[in-house]
């Protein structure tokens, strides 16, 4: 597994943050003037953005996390189910599958009608793959989980076309069969930040597990593949001791810039 470079991390993080904005002007971030397609959910709101440029062989699919009541309710659909349309040989979180298979409202004037989110995405990226481009999936929260599903499905249909998957604050989406058969573990980077409780969800050990390389940003350091029980223990301890941490001299030194120079 190659290391995730800092400029790559920053780029994907910025794009995931911008995905929540109503408008994303792709040319500001190095993409072509016509290098953006928006995939809407059933309510006509942007759910994914496909970004590319002529100079780069990388297509980036940016996926939002939960951003309406419907999405949040589907997070609670904790049973697992299979999906033959995606060619995945394992059951996964039923709620995330529902998000992928929901109807996609027409967003661009020339978009075909009556497609699901999954079908619309593949109709956009398959012509780009034929041009020799490879696909990176990145997403925040449930968007990261969806990115893993779509990436694994794409890799099975078009081998060696997925460049990498980078997720931020991602919940787990499957159990042991998912971990065993997932094709992209060596290309998946799962970023966890400090005490983010969503990264421990769903709270059903073994029935829900993570894949890929975990990068935990904690106390000013990056920890790789820290076991869940250790990460949870440190997080709980840190939370419990946080009131006392404000008494440390390091806090006073860090806040020295509040004072004017005299």
Describe the protein in words.
There is one protein chain. This protein has 262 residues and is an alpha/beta fold. The chain has one domain (6-227): Alpha/Beta hydrolase fold, catalytic domain (Rossmann fold, 3-Layer(aba) Sandwich). Helices cover 33% and strands 21% of the residues. The protein is built from 8 helices and 12 strands. The strands form 3 sheets. The protein has an 8-stranded mixed sheet with strand order 1-2-3-8-9-10-11-12, sandwiched between helices. β2 (46-51) and β3 form a beta hairpin. The longest helix has 18 residues, at 228-245. It is globular and about 55 Å long. The mean pLDDT is 89.
Q: Helical element count?
A: 8
Number of strands: 12
CATH fold name: Rossmann fold
| Biggest sheet, spatial arrangement of strands | 1-2-3-8-9-10-11-12
Shape summary: globular
Class from helix and strand fractions:
alpha/beta
Q: Characterize the biggest β-sheet.
A: 8 strands, mixed
State mean pLDDT (0 to 100 scale): 89
How far is the first residue's CA from the last residue's CA?
52 Å
Assigned CATH architecture:
3-Layer(aba) Sandwich
Q: Report the portion of residues in β strands.
A: 15-25%
CATH superfamily: Alpha/Beta hydrolase fold, catalytic domain
Helix and strand sequence = HEEEHEEHEEHEHEHEEEHH
Domain Fungal lipase-type: 60-204
GO biological process, one term: lipid metabolic process
Protein name: Lipase
């Amino acid at each position: 597994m190659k290391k995730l470079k800092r400029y790559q991390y920053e780029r994907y993080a910025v794009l995931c943050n911008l995905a929540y904005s109503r408008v994303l002007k792709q040319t500001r971030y190095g993409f072509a003037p016509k290098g953006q397609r928006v995939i809407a959910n059933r309510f006509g709101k942007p759910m994914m953005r496909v970004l590319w440029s002529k100079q780069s062989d990388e297509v980036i699919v940016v996926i939002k996390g939960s951003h309406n009541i419907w999405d949040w309710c589907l997070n609670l659909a904790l049973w697992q189910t299979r999906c033959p349309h995606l060619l995945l040989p394992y059951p996964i979180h039923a709620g995330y599958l529902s998000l992928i298979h929901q109807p996609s409202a027409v967003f661009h004037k020339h978009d075909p009608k009556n497609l699901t989110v999954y079908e619309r995405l593949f109709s956009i990226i398959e012509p780009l793959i034929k041009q020799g481009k490879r696909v990176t999936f990145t997403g925040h929260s449930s968007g990261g989980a969806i990115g893993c599903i779509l990436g694994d499905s794409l890799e099975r249909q078009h081998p060696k076309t997925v460049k990498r998957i980078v997720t931020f604050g991602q919940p787990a989406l499957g159990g042991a069969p998912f971990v065993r058969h997932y094709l992209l573990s060596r290309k998946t980077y799962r970023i966890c930040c400090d005490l983010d409780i969503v990264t421990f969800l769903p709270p059903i050990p073994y029935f829900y597990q993570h894949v890929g390389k975990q990068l935990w940003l904690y106390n000013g350091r990056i920890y790789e593949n820290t076991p869940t029980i250790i990460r949870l223990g440190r997080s709980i301890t840190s939370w419990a001791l946080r009131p006392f941490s404000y008494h440390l001299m390091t806090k006073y030194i860090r806040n020295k810039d509040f004072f004017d120079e005299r």
